Amino acid sequence: MQNLSGRTFAITGASGNLGPTVRDVLVASGANVVLLDRSAHPQPSDDAERVLGLGGLDLTNPDVIGATLDQAKERFGTLDGLVALAGAFRPGGTSAEDGWSVWDMLLTANLRTVVAAIQALVPRLPANGGRIVTIGARPAMVGTKGLAAYSASKAAILRLTESLSDELKARGVCVNCVLPSTIDTPQNRQAMPSADPSRWVPPEDIAQVIAFLLSDAARSVTGALIPVYGRA
Hints:
The chain has one domain: NAD(P)-binding Rossmann-like Domain (Rossmann fold), CATH 3.40.50.720. The longest helix has 21 residues, at 101-121. The protein is built from 6 helices and 7 strands; from the N terminus they run E-H-E-E-H-E-H-E-H-E-H-H-E. It has a 7-stranded parallel beta sheet with strand order 3-2-1-4-5-6-7, with helices on both faces. The protein has helices at 19-28, 62-76, 101-121, 148-168, 186-191, 203-214, and strands spanning 8-12, 32-36, 51-54, 81-84, 130-135, 173-180, 225-228. The radius of gyration is 17 Å and the shape is globular.
């Protein structure tokens, strides 16, 4: 377990499949957590003292996100980083029937939300130090049949992570990306009933990697694209 005591981290997309698990791991590590989500009520936590839930947000608007981060700083006294979990999955992108709709949706959900959160966060980080963790995906590394738009939207996150790491390293801000393979979620089990979920990645394992990247143990790690593939 990492020691994140006294630090505050924002999580976008907090009501998604990874959000509650990441929240619980960070709280167990001693962190304060700010849950940012477009749903009206982000997943509640038993530790209301160290968890602030802010819902009904436009996660593509840096001004909206910035206002919530100011609330977090006022509540907890510090803001030390971001876990950008907001995103979406949908197949398609190459057939004429898809048009631009699937591209627009995935680029907005997977890229624009991350850029907006970063634009809001960076001016509010400490003068020296901070952590940003983005979420890629295995198809971002190698394009996959039927997933052109998704692969492209996640590949953009990789270049964003590397560029931002280069921009912020002089300030002591570490920026890294976690790339899960298939995550063991109820939705994936339902969509792939004949698959072996024991080969997939448990959300807890991804959350533990994220906690490491937020910790002092990862102070020399920045610009990394970290695969978390399980046995898939």
